[in-house]
Structure formats: structure tokens, C-alpha cells
Amino acid sequence: MLLGNGGVHAVIVCKFEGGEFLFGGLLLLAGRMGDLLGRKRVFLAGLALFTVASLLCGASAVAVFWRTARRLSPGLALPALGSAALSSYWLDLAQSGRPYALFLLLAALQFDLFVVLRERWRARRGALYAGLGILGLYTHYYYALLLCSQLADALWRRRRDARAIAPRLPR
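Above: the chain sequence. Below: its structure as C-alpha cells.
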């Protein structure tokens, strides 16, 4: 009954309220720091912190992309990275899409873990994979598309492997 009558809406509202509480608490902390240290100094420190965090998220996403491309196809890793660096998504990321840097980093890390887990399952990596999925869904709802594509790939591989293992019936 809850899901039929707006349960999803209630979950979304709780998600936004949780973010608002965090933002409000950090805003109070920043206001107090501004009173003690000076507004201009706190503003410049916050701007520098945001810039460095955005730069690190973007650079680490490129590094994870490179590592995953090398793992999937060692001979094509450099051309794949070159084409990704020139794509419009990465250029847009440098301009107006800076808030998507965390989304991109989480997606790249989770895809890299997905490739590793396809070869060999480990419980800790599986838990990290699930945690990255939860964080990714918290950052953007498009993350669900990534999870669906990985689920489809896993189901397809499982079906293919089951057919290869099944005994051949005589005709």
C-alpha cells in the first residue's frame, strides 16, 4: 500500500531531507568559522576545497577509466582513453558538469569492480560494489541505468555459461 500510494515519493523526500540536514549543519559550521576567521578567508578556503575535490574526482575517474580499459583490452586502452578525452561528455564535465565528477568517479570505480568480480568473486569486493552502487544512486538517478546494464550483462553471462556446462543431448 505504501508503494502504491506514494511510497517512492516518500523515499525521495527523505533523501532530500537528509541532504538538507547535512547542508544545514555544514552551513552553520561555515557561518561560525566565518565569524571567527573572517568571511573572505572562509569563502576562499571553501572555494579552494571544492576546486581541489572536483579536480581529484575528475582526475581519478580518468585513472580508473584507463585501468579498466587496460584490463578489458590492453591494446586498445590508449585509443579508448584518447577518444574519451575528446568526447563531448568529458569536455562538458570540464565546464558546466563539475558536480557530476563524483558521479563519474563512482561509476568508473563500480564498473572497474564489476569487471574484476566477473572474473573472480570476493565477498569484500562484492560489498564494496554494493556500497558504490548505493552511493551512486544517491548522487544521481541515472546511476540506475548503469546498474541495469551490469545486471543484464551478468545474467547474459550466467545463461551463456550454463549452456556451455549443460550436457549435450543426443539427437
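The chain has seven helices and no strands.
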